[in-house]
Amino acid sequence: MFRDIVTDVFFDLDHTLWDFEKNSALTFDKILQANRVGVDLNDFLRVYVPLNLEFWKLYRDGKIIKEDLRYQRLKQTFDSLGFTISDETIHVLSEQYIEHLCSFTHLFPNTVDILDYLKPKYKLHIITNGFQEIQEKKLKNANIHSYFDQIIDSEMAGVKKPNPIIYQLALQKANVTPEKSIMIGDSLEADIMGARAMGLHALHFNVHNDKKHDYCDMINELNEIKSYL
């Protein structure tokens, strides 16, 4: 569908290639046990996962800073569970979470297969709202760093997706026009609407069971990309 048009493929990282929820759960299992925090992991994740998405939206919209995101998502989770825990322990957990998250390397099914398929035909890049200090580690530890020519993160750009500035920076670094570019990601707002507003083509990797929309086609498995590229 885009084979005769696109030369450059931009991927989101978390929730698109790198299995954030699985790796995050394994990280919490490790650090909660290590710090003897006696909360049930499943109960914790049931509250934490949607809260984390809410706080990431606030962070993406510039309404909170990184430190607030990292502290409040834990604080409010424990408060919602009625679990008493000191601020000191929350800060320790917050630091250890970042420290250990990259040590888990689960990717979505067929990630390597689709990257192997695309690499000979297109230039591949990453555009991520994640923190610069850990996104490179995720890519390297998962052995997929070498697939990508340009890795653009929100701290480098000074803004977060869907802000057009981060897409402008990505296009500039990749030396490509929007018409020859496609963005593939999980977030309707940040990845799809942000890319389409800048004139990029898009594919929505629907891992959150979003409703159908008119911005672009949706895929449920990464291997479906082969039908488009």
Automatic annotation (TrEMBL):
Q: Report which superkingdom the organism of origin falls in.
A: Bacteria
Keyword set, alphabetical order: Hydrolase
List, in alphabetical order, the Gene Ontology terms for molecular function in this entry.
5'-nucleotidase activity
Q: Which InterPro entries match?
A: HAD-like_sf, HAD-SF_hydro_IA, HAD-SF_hydro_IA_YjjG/PynA, HAD_sf, PGP-like_dom2, Pyrimidine_5'-ntase_YjjG
Species this chain originates from: Sediminicola luteus
Q: What is this protein called?
A: YjjG family noncanonical pyrimidine nucleotidase
- Enzyme class, first EC level, given as a word: hydrolase
Enzyme Commission code: 3.1.3.5
- Identify the NCBIfam families for this entry: HAD-SF-IA-v1, HAD-SF-IA-v3, YjjG_YfnB
- Gene3D superfamilies in the record, alphabetically? HAD superfamily/HAD-like (3.40.50.1000), Putative phosphatase, domain 2 (1.10.150.240)
